[in-house]
Design a protein that fits this description.
homodimer, alpha+beta, 13 strands
Chain lengths: 341, 341
């Protein structure tokens, strides 16, 4: 098997021969939120965030996080979210600091990280994937590494698995890879232009989850007797979704995305003790979507590890979606400008 | 593999040498509703109702169906439920008639079947298992066969799988068996006396289900990518539940029953298209149970292929169950008189 590969090994390998000193005062990076159509659910390596299955997402145009990084004059790390400095005992602070540990160099640099998000808190979107992708871009700018997108994707994955997808725009595949060091586990953009494709956010709740998606994933892998089927199901779903994307087949893609999300939730519901992210209103909204389909509407949903629905539909259904769900925050993730910037 | 075994073969084998003529005017049979703690979900033989996994249930004292059978003077079958004669084009009529086809003998007898149920329609309890068990008992009385309980259980299974459990009282195991003719697939009573054990019905809806449990089961077996894990999960759950029953361990039994039910629902949720029997209020009720457990209460639930919860708890929790859920219809299925009659 060989020795265990650590995050530090991976960073050393990627940054070999590159600058360990900042080349400018401040590095700035931006990255968008992504929503998976084929979900990432379960790790084969917890330290490297190596997944058990490949996944597919679309990014939400405009829903970006911006990160600014500079060397701290105060001799200790500072993390400032929307002008609020995080207390040192906060889990989010710890997670960022442990990530920064990978980039301090021989001098043991300390950093000031400032984050601004265009994602309204009321959007019900987890933005940690976008945050880590933006942080990697900011570090790349600060140190002048000029890494390739693939290298950025691998580094982003070390912070948050799905962050590797937020390095790109539009439809993005994260290939699981097989290597123990994860050097083959990164995202790539599909460059699919499909202007009619829409994603609409249905907000059920913005309350903080009782169980975060990371511990939820681990609990499911460890205790759900149905989980063992998931990786093969997801790989097959992904292949079919790629064909549906290629053929611009909304019925096939939407149906697969919905079934894939429900399969993921099914593995959680079967965990012991059970894990249910749905609220009563989540069920009402799902039933409303199914009723629309009974009436011939091409409207589908996906649900992440939370209570909110993300609707998937072609632009022709936008009016009826608004009629049924009221104002939904709507995105066109696969227009030419959104996909290929 | 040999030829396919039909229901007719099984009936011939069991009734060999027994009377094919009624020995009295009318046969009367009664049988109770049963609620599974380890669910029957999926068939290995659709005609013989042979299950893919063994299951465990308790019967609900007083929730009985009574069947009266006599030879019809009218030359055709009549099925009368609570004084209402079923139309010939109703599915329930067809199902009973096809079952009666197995018992007509050389004379091609036609029957009048009258059913009365002590199960209020508003209880949200499916009573077809109790109905077929009662019908078998009524036929046994009409023809004077004097079959053993095991033989009655096998014949009841031919009408409705879980009917084989309703031949007995109290805690009952249906062993899946392995034989192609199903002669080893029957129920047996465990004779567990546990006076503190309670089951409470939480009624969410009595509306007729959009998908019955029989087609729901078949759809799940055929399309759910998670189903293949179910039979092994259920067999293991059953062994653990038997140990928990033996040890009168409410926490273990309740937790296993709840997880087993959720695992069954998870296989449906992952079916394609998905199958969700829950209503929004089902989710609220589940969350209420989990909140009670957070407060140290030993209250658990099971859910059949429908929206209603059946709570499982020791008698000490009866008061707090009423406080949280209002009046629930409560049963003591494992008292001496309920288990061993």
């Amino acid at each position: 098997m060989g020795p265990r590969v650590t995050r530090r090994h991976v960073v050393q390998q990627i940054l070999r021969g590159r600058s360990k000193e900042p080349v400018r005062e401040q590095g700035i990076g931006r990255a968008p939120v992504n929503i998976a159509l084929c979900k990432y659910w379960g790790k084969r390596d917890a330290e490297l965030n190596l997944p058990r299955n490949s996944s597919l997402s679309v990014t939400l145009p405009g829903m970006e996080v911006e990160m600014r990084v500079e060397v701290s004059g105060e001799g200790r790390d500072e993390v400032v979210l929307e002008d609020n400095r995080l207390p040192q005992d906060e889990a989010a602070f710890q997670r960022v600091v442990e990530y920064l540990d990978l980039f301090r160099g021989a001098k043991g640099l300390r950093f000031r990280v400032e984050s601004r998000s265009a994602v309204p808190p009321a959007a019900g979107l987890a933005s940690s994937a976008a945050a880590f992708a933006a942080l990697v871009r900011a570090l790349d700018a600060l140190f002048g590494w000029e890494l390739t997108p693939r290298e950025l994707s691998i580094l982003a994955r070390l912070g948050s698995g799905s962050a590797c997808r937020s390095i790109f725009q539009g439809a993005v595949v994260w290939q699981a890879g097989r290597r123990r060091d994860g050097m083959d586990s990164f995202a790539r953009p599909l460059n699919i232009v499909w202007p009619e494709f829409r994603m609409g956010l249905v907000l059920i709740s913005t309350a903080e989850k009782a169980v975060g998606s990371r511990p939820g994933m681990n609990h499911t892998v460890e205790t759900s007797p149905l989980y063992s089927r998931w990786p093969a199901v997801a790989e097959q779903d992904l292949q079919r979704m790629l064909a549906a994307l290629e053929g611009r087949d909304m019925g096939a893609l939407g149906g697969l995305a919905e079934s894939n999300a429900l399969c993921m939730h099914a593995t959680m519901i079967a965990a012991r003790p059970p894990l249910l992210y749905w609220e009563p209103k989540t069920v009402s909204a799902m039933k409303r979507v199914w009723a629309m389909r009974q009436e011939g509407r091409r409207v589908y949903f996906t649900i992440d590890a939370g209570p909110n629905l993300k609707l998937i539909y072609p632009v022709e259904e936008a009016r009826v979606v608004r009629e049924v769900f009221g104002e939904v925050r709507e995105f066109a993730p696969l227009t030419e400008s959104a996909s290929c910037s």
